[in-house]
């Protein structure tokens, strides 16, 4: 089962309080997650003392700092930690501030580290990267071009000129693990951007006026040339590249023999046996799979473990 419930208290009820960010920045227990160009500071574990455990299996920790350690930034409220202390976002433009990483800490992105974080840290990271991207990229009103001020503790902007209020945008996209009629094989595709080095589930954005089910049928037929006889929802994942919500499905084909790549976005499609997928999940074989941070890998593993 890969469906997860909420783990982070986002403290939405205090976002509209007057001067809430200034008040929280002055509080002794408040901690800050700094996002710089989509990356955060992470404390890496000592792999030398971990025995035979693979490095990717070692748990890392987000580095939170005191508000006084951050100078120029756009601020927002991310929520509260388990002890009830506020956690703020500081979206900075570059690395010229006062945040200096210790030798055991590294600036890493979501793709690098999310699969090695505890659930709450991973959720906090996704929230912070998504919100930081919007705060940095949307300083102007899309309706009139006027300057839009940050309000609601970083969760909306109001235009100074026309008064319109704008919120962080989320773009829905489906991602689908396609299986054979007998359930013993999984169809994966190689995206042109990967140069054939990795195979993954099929994905695509919802278009105007489409239901998610319609997107699933359209995208799979466009990219892999097969029609589906059944689909079912599995789980979802926020993926801030730049602002996606990935909605995961499993689907069964009508006729597996007609599978073919579209030749543009997908350069190859291939049916994998459960044994081949198991080997690839363990890092063996000649085919790469998506990283542990992605819902694509979770969908593949969900299918693999269904009958093993």
Describe the secondary-structure layout.
Layout: H1 20-25, E1 31-36, E2 39-43, E3 61-62, E4 74-80, E5 86-92, E6 105-109, H2 110-113, H3 119-137, E7 148-151, E8 156-159, E9 165-166, E10 171-179, E11 185-191, E12 202-205, H4 212-224, E13 228-239, E14 244-253, E15 266-273, H5 274-281, H6 295-305
Parallel strand pairs: 1-5, 10-14
Antiparallel strand pairs: 2-3, 2-6, 4-5, 7-8, 8-9, 10-11, 10-12, 11-15, 13-14
Rg over alpha carbons: 22 Å
Helical residues, percent: 10-25%
Q: pLDDT under 50 segments (min length 5)?
A: none
Main pleated sheet: 6 strands, mixed
**Structural class by SSE content:** alpha+beta
What is the overall number of helices? 6
Termini Cα gap: 14 Å
The chain-level mean pLDDT equals 90
* Pattern of helices and strands: HEEEEEEHHEEEEEEHEEEHH
Shape, principal axes of CA atoms: globular
Please count the beta strands (DSSP E, at least 2 residues each).
15
**Share of β-strand residues:** 25-35%
Structure overview:
The protein is an alpha+beta fold. It has six helices and 15 strands. The protein has helices spanning 20-25, 110-113, 119-137, 212-224, 274-281, 295-305; strands at 31-36, 39-43, 61-62, 74-80, 86-92, 105-109, 148-151, 156-159, 165-166, 171-179, 185-191, 202-205, 228-239, 244-253, 266-273. Strands 10, 11, 12, 13, 14 and 15 form a six-stranded mixed β-sheet that branches. A three-stranded mixed β-sheet has the order 1-5-4. A hairpin with a 5-residue loop joins strand 10 (171-179) and strand 11 (185-191). The protein starts with 19 loop residues before the first helix and ends with a helix. The mean pLDDT is 90.
């Amino acid at each position: 089962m890969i469906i997860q419930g909420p783990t982070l208290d986002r403290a939405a009820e205090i976002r509209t309080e007057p001067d809430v960010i200034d008040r929280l920045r002055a509080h002794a227990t408040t901690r800050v997650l700094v996002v710089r160009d989509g990356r955060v500071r992470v404390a890496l574990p000592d792999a030398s003392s971990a025995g035979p455990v693979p490095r990717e299996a070692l748990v890392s920790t987000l580095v939170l700092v005191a508000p006084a350690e951050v100078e120029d930034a756009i601020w927002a409220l991310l929520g509260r930690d388990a002890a009830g202390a506020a956690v703020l976002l500081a979206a900075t433009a570059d690395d010229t501030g006062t945040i200096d990483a210790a030798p055991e800490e590294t600036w890493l992105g979501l793709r690098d580290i999310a699969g090695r974080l505890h659930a709450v840290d991973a959720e906090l990271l996704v929230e912070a990267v998504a919100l930081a991207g919007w705060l940095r990229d949307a300083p102007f009103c899309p309706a009139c071009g006027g300057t839009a001020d940050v309000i609601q503790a970083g969760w909306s902007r109001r235009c100074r000129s026309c008064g319109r209020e704008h919120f962080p945008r989320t773009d829905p996209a489906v991602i689908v693990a396609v299986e054979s009629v007998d359930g013993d094989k999984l169809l994966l595709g190689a995206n042109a951007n990967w140069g054939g080095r990795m195979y993954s589930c099929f994905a695509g954005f919802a278009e105007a006026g489409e239901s998610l089910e319609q997107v699933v049928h359209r995208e799979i037929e466009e990219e892999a040339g097969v029609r589906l006889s059944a689909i079912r929802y599995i789980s979802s994942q926020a993926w801030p590249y730049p602002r996606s919500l990935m909605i995961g499905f499993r689907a069964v084909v009508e006729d597996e023999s007609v599978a073919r790549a579209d030749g543009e976005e997908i350069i190859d499609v291939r049916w994998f046996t459960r044994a081949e997928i198991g080997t690839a999940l363990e890092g063996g074989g000649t085919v790469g799979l998506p990283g542990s941070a992605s819902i694509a890998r979770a969908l593949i593993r969900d299918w693999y473990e269904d009958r093993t």
